[in-house]
Amino acid sequence: MTPPEFSVDWYRAVTEFAAGLPDWVRALAEIATTGVLALLALGFVLAWRRARDPRARAAALLAPAATVLAYLLSETAKTFWQQDRPCRTVSGTIAECPPAGDWSFPSNHATLAGAAAVGLVIAWRAAAALALPAAVIEAAARVLVGVHYPHDVIVGLILGGIVAALVVPALREPLARRLQSRNSVTRPAS
Asked: What is the largest CA-CA distance in the chain?
């Protein structure tokens, strides 16, 4: 797949900007590409720990499951589009360019971030103030370090968000009923 020209131009502008940043900022951007995902995963743990009723527990369990499903869809999509990474075709990276055959479109990191953020918001609304900006930071960092075009991360965020927005609400009630029935069977009567 050939990337759209607007995305190539945008990529060049971002990586040229990144080249002028201090070393510590570039290092921070590279750390952010994994660190933000770790923070979102921590959000899953916190959502689970604060869940008090079966509906909240179901959403807290489904958010990471939807994130994994979104990742699998993203990885499958890459095999159809097989778009080379910009660090191979345009250059300008902070991070090491992934090996050949590790396709660019859509961004797995952005897909994971989009799904995790939307899943967390569904499971724990108060997490929106941190989860949604974190997903955008994750996506932007992938472009800043030079391993994705902007359209890769935009589509990844949208893909992940849509998967979580469909999966978590669709399965929350059936899973909540199952958790409720399991709790009533395992708890002794008082």
From this structure: 68
Residue 186 belongs to a domain: no
pLDDT at residue 186 is higher than 70: no
For the segment 35-88, what is each residue's pLDDT rounded down to a tens digit? 999 999 999 999 999 998 999 999 999 999 999 999 999 999 999 999 999 988
Residue 130 lies in a domain: yes
- Residue 88: burial class (beta carbons within 10 Å; 0-12, 13-18, 19+): middle
Is residue 51 in a domain?
A: yes
The CATH number that applies at residue 66 is: 1.20.144
Instruction: Write the single-letter amino acid at 178.
Output: R
pTM: 0.90
Place of tokens 């103030």: 129
The rounded distance, in Å, linking the Cα atoms of 13 and 111 is 23
Q: Which of 177, 157, 161 is nearest to 53 (CA)?
A: 177
Residue with tokens 């069977």: 185
